[in-house]
Amino acid sequence: MKAATVAPWFVAIGASGREGLDDIRELLRQLPSSLGAVVLIVLHRPWHRLSHLQSILARASQMPVVIASQGEHFDQGNAYIGEPEDHLTLASRSFGELINDPEGHYRNRTVDLLFRSVAAHGGERTIGVILSGSLDDGSRGISAIRHAGGRTTVLTPGVLSRRGMPENAISYDGPIDLIGEPRQIADAIYKTVRNDSNRLSKGPQTSGEIP
Predict the structure, then answer these.
(1) Which residues, other chains included, contact 18 with Cβ-Cβ below 8 Å and sequence gap of 6+?
(2) Considering its fold, how many domains does the chain have in total?
(3) Residue 86's pLDDT band (boundaries 50, 70, 90)?
(4) Of the candidates 207, 175, 168, the residue with the CA atom closest to the CA atom of residue 188
(5) What range defines the domain where residue 36 resides?
(6) CB-count burial class (<10 Å; 0-12, 13-18, 19+) for 88
(7) Nearest CA to 182 among 114, 129, 127, 136?
(8) Can you list the positions of beta strands (E) in 93-196?
(9) How many whole angstroms separate alpha carbon 211 and alpha carbon 190?
(10) What is the CATH number of the domain that holds 152?
(11) Which of 2, 25, 53, 180 has the fewest Cβ atoms within 10 Å of its own Cβ atom?
(12) Looking at per-residue confidence, does 200 or 51 come out higher?
């Protein structure tokens, strides 16, 4: 009898601004090219300007950084981004609709769009990551991941008094599994995915794994 195919892990990352870009780069530096997961990245950026995000991230990343195409099947060990006007969403075995948004109507909700679609199709094999950014995009999406049985991680809030994406995600709805710096988050992602692939089923937490 043919063995059942194990669903991949999905790591969904959301951030905004220069600080968010720096956080993503640091996170990708720490994730190995052998990571058994599909990495999906949303960064708020000007939608009407030429984007060099792929090349910027590729210089920091150990895994290939790919601009997703609608209907394209995903590969583990790749990091995917969308074009500035195309917002990533996920279907069961491929990228779902790449929501074209030339007028920027979704520009403050692009992380929520991705996270909710990943929660719907990835379920408990999903890790949501909120990094630096302003406002509260991602709070609803990371809540959806938590309710779907996935893991939730958020960057440690800074010392500034303003509330941004990390602060809003932490306070929005229920506990966050891990609050830490990009290096700590990357280490926990790696251990969670590696330990799961070793046992092929949910089991006792290993030290450093996301609860």
Answers:
(1) none
(2) 1
(3) low
(4) 207
(5) 9-168+180-199
(6) buried
(7) 129
(8) 99-100, 126-130, 151-155, 178-180
(9) 13
(10) 3.40.50.180
(11) 2
(12) 51
- Closest by Cα among 146, 10, 33, 197 to 91: 10
Tokens encoding 140: 């609803």
Which of 204, 150, 211 lies closest to 179, judged by CA?
211
- What strands lie across the sheet with 126-130, from one edge to the other? 65-67, 79-81, 37-44, 9-16, 126-130, 151-155, 178-180
Q: What is the pLDDT of residues 152-201, one digit of tens each?
A: 999 999 866 678 999 999 999 989 999 999 999 999 999 999 998 665 44
Q: Which residue has the tokens 């951030």?
A: 15
Calculate the average pLDDT of the chain. Answer: 83
> Do residues 116 and 91 lie in contact, with contact meaning Cβ atoms separated by under 8 Å?
no
Q: Is residue 112 part of a domain?
A: yes
In a domain, 210, yes or no: no
Please determine, for residue 144, whether its predicted confidence score (pLDDT) is greater than 70. Answer: yes
In a domain, 173, yes or no: no
Which among 113, 128, 132 has a CA at the least distance from the CA of 173? 128
Q: Which amino acid is at 73?
A: H
Tell me whether residue 209 is in a domain: no
Task: Return the structure tokens found at 32.
Answer: 């190995």
